[in-house]
Amino acid sequence: MKDHNYYVYILTNWNNKVMYIGITNDLERRLYEHKNKLVDGFTKKYNVNKLVYYEHGNDVHAVIAREKEIKKWRREKKDKLVITMNPEWKDLSSEWQASPRDGISTSTGALVISTSAARRNLAPTAEDFSPLRGSK
């Protein structure tokens, strides 16, 4: 049976005043979309693209229920939740290679293996590697 991955996540803007709660089955891809303003809506309008909190689950119904639960909370309770994972309110995705093809990686200047090869359970090919942005 295939293992499914779902995420409930919290984004905020540069000064942590605006908050967005969402769910996805591919956190890297979804963050790429938010950061590059590829989808019209709330996050694009209010420049909300800093990942400050996320939870992982395998049951889509449980993740949807958790999203709805968090959305009902007062701001103070949401802030406390973020602080449990991220007391400094840093962008948790800042070290990721922001490309849905490359997946999550760090900015070490090394080559990055794409998640597509890992998902296929295959040995990577030359096409699965790409240099990190900003590397020399």
Structure description:
Helices cover 32% and strands 20% of the residues. It is α+β, with helices and mostly antiparallel strands and 136 residues long. It folds into 2 domains: 6-85, GIY-YIG endonuclease (3-Layer(aba) Sandwich); 97-136, no CATH class. Strand 1 (6-12) and strand 2 (19-24) form a beta hairpin.
- CATH top level class name of the largest domain: Alpha Beta
Quick one: how many beta strands? 5
How far is the N terminus from the C terminus? 42 Å
Largest sheet: 3 strands, antiparallel
What's the helix count? 5
Strand content: 15-25%
Note the run of SSEs as H and E: EEHHEHHEHE
Quick take:
The chain is an alpha+beta fold.
Write the layout of secondary structure elements.
Layout: E1 6-12, E2 19-24, H1 27-35, H2 42-45, E3 50-57, H3 60-72, H4 75-85, E4 111-113, H5 115-120, E5 129-131
Antiparallel strand pairs: 1-2, 1-3, 4-5
Which key features would you list for this structure?
136 residues; alpha+beta; GIY-YIG endonuclease; 2 domains; three-stranded antiparallel β-sheet; two-stranded antiparallel sheet; 5 helices; 5 strands; disordered C terminus
